[in-house]
Request: fold
Amino acid sequence: MPDRIQRRRVRGWRLPANAVIIDRSSRWGNPFRIVDAAEHGCADPQRDCVEMYDEWLNGAGPDVYVVGSRRFDRLWVWDHLLDIEGRDVACTCPLPGAGNPDICHGQPLLAAVAAAVAAKAVYRDPSRRWAPGELLQRRSTRTLRVTGGVL
Reply:
C-alpha cells in the first residue's frame, strides 16, 4: 500500500528509492496555492486547496493551469497515473498527527491511481486515457456508469 511521506529539504535527507516527489516542483504538484486561498478568505486554506485539486483532478475547471513558470496539466497526470502505482509519494505538507486526517493533495492523487488501477484503464496510447466517470460520460457515447474508463 503506497504511503505519503514528508519531503524534507534538509542536509542529509534522501528520497526513498520507491518514492516519487509530488510537490509543486514536479508535474504532479497542486496548482492551487494556500497563500491564494488565504487571501480569498477561505476558513481552512489548506483543506480548500486539496478539495480544489481533487475537483480539478476529477474534471472541474481547465485542463491546464500555469502558476508562475510551472505548468500543471491534468491530461498529463491522467496519462501517467500508473507511473506512481505502488510507489510512495513525497510532498512537503506536514504529516497528520495520530487520529487526524491527512490534508494533502497526495491523498486525492493516490485515490485516482487506485481508481485507474482498479479499472485497468490506463493505456500508453496517447489517444486513449483514463478519466473519472463523470468526465467519461461527457466525452463518451457510452451511457454505462463507471468509476473510470478509456476515452
